[in-house]
Amino acid sequence: MDENATDGQPADDRPAGGATAAQPAPLSAGPPSPRPRTRRRRILRVAALLLALLLVPLLTAETALRLNYTGDPAPGTRTRHQDALWLGHAWVDGRKGDRDVEALADRLRGTGIRDLYVHSGPLEHDGTLPASAYPKARRLTAAVHRELPGVRVQAWLGDKLAGEGSDGLRLDRKATRSAVLASTRAVLAAGFQGVHFDLEPLHSGDHDYLDLLDDLRALTHARGAVLSVAAHQIDPLPAFHSFWGATTGHPKWWSQAYFGQVARRVDQIAVMSYDTMQPLQSLYGGYVAQQTSLALEVTPDGTCLLMGLPFYHENRFGHRARAETVPAAVRGVRLGLSRTDADRRAFGVALYVDFAATEADWRAYREGWAATPPTAS
Fold it and tell me: What does the DSSP assignment read for 260-298?
């Protein structure tokens, strides 16, 4: 064997430079496998299908709301003089006095407002309410009765419920419900003519709330007082509160059946028909028309139904000031009333809230709802 051979290869067979000879090139493996591309296409198709499944119902619902905003309200669908106004805490803690009541009376004369919901809480988490929360209540009620005979003043009480967390008022506790009743007795004794409750977030189907309302109704009626509540919106689609609750943990809406159960237990029920997540006035107005119809269908004739008007101008998730306007809400209310129960007397609007209202809000309420149009000669 030649001593200059390498790896068993004769020296004269080596390439120049001493490198070993190149091995034969492997046979070509052919074109790349089509599997990765096919998989991507399949994923894109599934994603597009899921997006369509989400968007088609949404677009269908929004189109329906836009159509719901079309047409003309029926003649006479204006104030029945059953309207209400939410007032801030300054009216009972001493910051506002008789001159403020006089100015408020000037603004409200000639409108349809019959009830004032005056913030007098909030309740403590155990249901109690210190008298120090409403020290000027009797002075306020006396001034309102002097300046606005026939207008009732109700104590607006509320609190955060513990349904979505550990902190808050627990309606499942009998002691808490008993304390709420005692707080109600106290505010009625202070001169209020009714009590208006706003407890949130209140899930659809809450039977402890219904039990509390039964007890409150017996108490208020025994004293000749009014029981009213602020109500969540009604499912815009069947069982939507269940879907929304499962996906967000916060079921914003009530079922229509539960709304009816609440309405049958109170004298007044005011729908918080704002914070609707609608981006356009036409969609918001159509939404209010839908909510008005849904609420009318299950509210008994003996209960006064009030639809909330947004007298505030915030921009945040769920509320767009340019969309949720008073003119759109008023038109929506009139359209819903026209289509469902145009002659209903126990019906009105509720204005939220006095300290955020603008002159434009008041003008829209007066011109769109409170004013009686001239009759044709």
Answer: HHHHTT-SEEEE--------SHHHHHHHHHHHHHHHHHH
